[in-house]
C-alpha cells in the first residue's frame, strides 16, 4: 500500500459515519450496468446518478474509476461454530464473518446445527443468537433447522416466520436427524402455509449407508471411499424425490442446497418446465474442484457432502449458471483444521468431519472463473451472489441491489488485480484453503457494510459486533 493510499483509507475509517461518495465506478446490478456515482448517507444509498456532488465537508470520497461497484455478496449457506458431533467447526461468527467481509460478502445466512434430540424449533435459534451476538462483523440471519416433525414443531413454524424473522428452514434427507418422506411432506406443507421456503440437503441415506458399510467391511477406509460411497445418483434420486414431495405438498416452494451434478440439475429443470417453484444453489467447490482431489496425499481436506464429482460435472453446472437454471452460488463454509480435526478420519473416512472452508474465496473465484473467463456476465455475477439470495430469503429490497433506500452493502471489485489464492492471505480460522494456488483475476478492493469500510485490499478493517441480526420477510412467491 502506498503512503497516499494509506492516508486515504485512514480518512475513510476515521469518519465511518459521515456521508460516502463513490465516484466514476462501473455500477452493476442484476439487470443494469453503467458508469455512475453512488452517494451513501447514514448507511443507506441516497442517490445514484451520472454525477453526484459531495453533500458536506466531511463526505468521504472514493474514486472507483476502473472498478466494478456491486451489491455486497450474500452467502446464504455457512456453518459457523457448528457442533458436528465429533468436533466443532473452527470458525465462529467473528472469524467466519471477518473472512466473509474480506472476500466481498456483506451478509450471511447460517444453517444452524442440530440441537439435543427432541428440542423445539426455538431452541437452536436462541443458541445461535448467543453464538453471533457481539461477534458478527457483517449482517446475519439463520435458517431454521428441522430435526423431527410433530404437532408442536408444526405449530411453532408460524412464530418462527412472523415473529422471529426466520423465513427459511433446512431439512436433511441424510445425517443423524434425517426426515422420512412422511415428515418431509408434512414439513413442506406447513412451511408453505406459513410463508417459508424449505431448503433441502438431498442424498439418499439408505443407498449411501449401504455403500459405506460395504467399503468399511472390505477395509476400504481412505478418503476417496467417502466420495465413492456417495455417488451422484444418491443425490439426484433424493432431488427427484423431494421435488415430487413438494409437488404433493400443494406445490410448496423448494430450494435445493449445494447441487453438485448435472443429473440432479436436469431434474430441477424438468420441474421448472412444469412451473414448479424450485430454486437451485451450487457452490464454488462443485465448479472449480473435482474428484481428482481424492487421489492427493491431503485428500482429507476435500471430505465434504455431497463429495466432489468428476470434471465433466463442473461444465454442466457452469452451463446451469449461464442458462439461469441455477439461481445462487453459496459456499457451505464448514471449516475444520487439516492438522487436527480432519485427521480424525485419517484411518477411517467415516470419522472425518464433513465440510470445507470457502466464505472468503466465493466472490473472487466466481468473478475470476465466471466473469473474467467469459462464462457469465457481470449482471449474472450479481444475480447469483446477491440479488437472487436477497429475493429468495426475504432481504430484498433492503439488500441485493444498489438502489435508493437500500443498505449501503457495497463491494468494489478491481478486475485488474491478479493474485493466486493463498491461505496465508485469508482471514478464517482454518489452516488451509481447498483452493490453494488457484490464480484469480479480479479481487475485492473495498467492502462496505452499511457504509462502513470493513475490508480494504485484503485487510480487515471492521469490528466484532458491527453486524446486525436481520429480521427477514416471509417468503413470497408472487415476487417471481
Ligand atoms: O460436508 C458438508 N457439506 N458439511 C456441512 C453440512 C452440510 O451438509 O451442509
Ligand atoms: Zn448439506
Ligand atoms: Zn451445509
TrEMBL record:
<protein>
    <submittedName>
        <fullName>Dihydropyrimidinase</fullName>
    </submittedName>
</protein>
<dbReference type="InterPro" id="IPR032466">
    <property type="entry name" value="Metal_Hydrolase"/>
</dbReference>
<dbReference type="InterPro" id="IPR011778">
    <property type="entry name" value="Hydantoinase/dihydroPyrase"/>
</dbReference>
<dbReference type="InterPro" id="IPR011059">
    <property type="entry name" value="Metal-dep_hydrolase_composite"/>
</dbReference>
<keyword id="KW-0479">Metal-binding</keyword>
<feature type="domain" description="Amidohydrolase-related">
    <location>
        <begin position="68"/>
        <end position="454"/>
    </location>
</feature>
<dbReference type="InterPro" id="IPR050378">
    <property type="entry name" value="Metallo-dep_Hydrolases_sf"/>
</dbReference>
<keyword id="KW-0378">Hydrolase</keyword>
<dbReference type="GO" id="GO:0046872">
    <property type="term" value="F:metal ion binding"/>
</dbReference>
<dbReference type="GO" id="GO:0005829">
    <property type="term" value="C:cytosol"/>
</dbReference>
<dbReference type="GO" id="GO:0016812">
    <property type="term" value="F:hydrolase activity, acting on carbon-nitrogen (but not peptide) bonds, in cyclic amides"/>
</dbReference>
<dbReference type="InterPro" id="IPR006680">
    <property type="entry name" value="Amidohydro-rel"/>
</dbReference>
<comment type="similarity">
    <text>Belongs to the metallo-dependent hydrolases superfamily. Hydantoinase/dihydropyrimidinase family.</text>
</comment>
<feature type="modified residue" description="N6-carboxylysine">
    <location>
        <position position="170"/>
    </location>
</feature>
<dbReference type="Pfam" id="PF01979">
    <property type="entry name" value="Amidohydro_1"/>
</dbReference>
Amino acid at each position: 500500500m502506498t503512503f497516499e493510499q494509506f492516508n486515504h483509507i485512514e480518512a475513510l475509517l476515521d469518519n465511518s459515519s459521515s456521508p460516502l461518495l463513490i465516484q466514476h465506478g462501473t455500477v452493476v446490478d442484476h439487470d443494469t450496468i453503467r458508469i455512475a456515482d453512488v452517494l451513501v448517507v447514514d448507511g443507506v444509498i441516497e442517490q445514484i446518478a451520472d454525477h453526484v456532488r459531495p453533500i458536506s465537508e466531511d463526505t468521504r470520497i472514493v474514486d472507483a474509476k476502473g472498478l466494478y461497484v456491486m451489491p455486497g455478496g450474500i452467502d446464504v449457506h455457512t456453518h459457523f461454530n457448528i457442533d458436528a458431533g465429533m468436533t466443532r467447526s473452527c470458525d465462529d461468527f467473528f472469524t467466519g464473518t471477518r473472512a466473509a467481509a474480506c472476500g466481498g460478502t456483506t451478509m450471511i445466512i447460517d444453517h444452524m446445527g442440530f440441537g439435543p434430540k427432541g428440542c423445539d424449533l426455538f431452541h437452536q435459534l436462541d443458541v445461535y443468537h448467543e453464538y453471533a451476538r457481539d461477534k458478527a462483523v457483517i449482517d446475519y440471519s439463520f435458517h431454521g433447522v428441522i430435526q423431527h416433525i410433530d404437532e408442536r414443531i408444526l405449530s411453532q413454524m408460524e412464530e418462527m416466520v412472523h415473529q422471529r424473522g426466520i423465513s427459511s428452514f433446512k431439512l436433511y434427507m441424510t445425517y443423524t436427524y434425517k426426515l422420512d418422506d412422511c415428515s418431509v411432506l408434512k414439513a413442506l406443507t406447513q412451511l408453505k402455509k406459513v410463508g417459508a421456503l424449505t431448503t433441502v440437503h438431498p442424498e439418499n441415506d439408505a443407498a449411501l449407508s449401504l455403500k459405506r458399510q460395504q467399503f468399511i467391511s472390505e477395509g476400504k477406509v481412505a478418503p476417496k471411499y467417502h466420495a465413492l460411497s456417495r455417488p451422484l445418483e444418491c443425490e439426484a434420486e433424493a432431488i427427484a424425490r423431494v421435488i415430487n414431495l413438494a409437488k404433493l405438498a400443494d406445490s410448496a416452494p423448494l430450494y435445493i442446497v449445494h447441487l453438485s451434478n448435472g443429473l440432479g440439475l436436469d431434474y430441477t429443470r424438468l420441474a421448472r418446465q412444469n412451473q414448479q417453484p424450485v430454486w437451485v444453489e451450487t457452490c464454488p467447490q462443485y465448479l472449480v474442484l473435482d474428484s481428482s482431489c481424492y487421489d492427493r496425499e491431503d485428500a482429507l481436506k476435500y471430505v465434504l457432502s455431497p463429495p466432489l464429482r468428476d470434471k465433466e460435472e463442473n461444465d454442466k453446472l457452469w452451463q446451469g449458471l449461464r442458462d439461469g437454471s441455477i439461481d445462487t452460488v453459496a459456499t457451505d463454509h464448514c471449516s475444520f483444521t487439516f492438522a487436527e480435526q480432519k485427521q480424525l478420519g485419517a484411518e477411517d473416512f467415516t470419522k472425518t468431519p464433513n465440510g470445507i472452508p470457502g466464505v472468503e474465496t466465493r466472490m473472487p473465484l466466481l468473478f475470476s472463473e465466471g466473469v473474467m473467463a467469459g462464462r457469465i456476465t457481470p449482471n449474472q455475477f450479481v444475480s447469483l451472489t446477491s440479488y437472487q439470495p436477497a429475493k429468495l430469503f426475504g432481504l430484498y429490497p433492503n439488500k441485493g441491489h444498489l438502489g435508493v433506500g437500500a443498505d449501503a452493502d457495497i463491494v468494489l471489485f478491481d478486475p485488474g488485480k491478479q493474485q493466486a489464492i493463498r491461505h496465508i492471505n485469508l482471514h478464517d480460522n482454518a489452516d488451509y484453503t481447498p483452493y490453494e494456488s488457484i490464480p484469480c483475476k479480479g479481487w475485492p478492493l473495498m467492502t462496505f457494510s452499511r457504509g462502513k469500510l470493513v475490508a480494504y485490499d485484503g485487510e480487515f478493517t471492521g469490528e466484532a459486533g458491527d453486524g446486525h441480526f436481520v429480521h427477514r420477510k416471509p417468503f413470497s412467491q408472487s415476487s417471481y
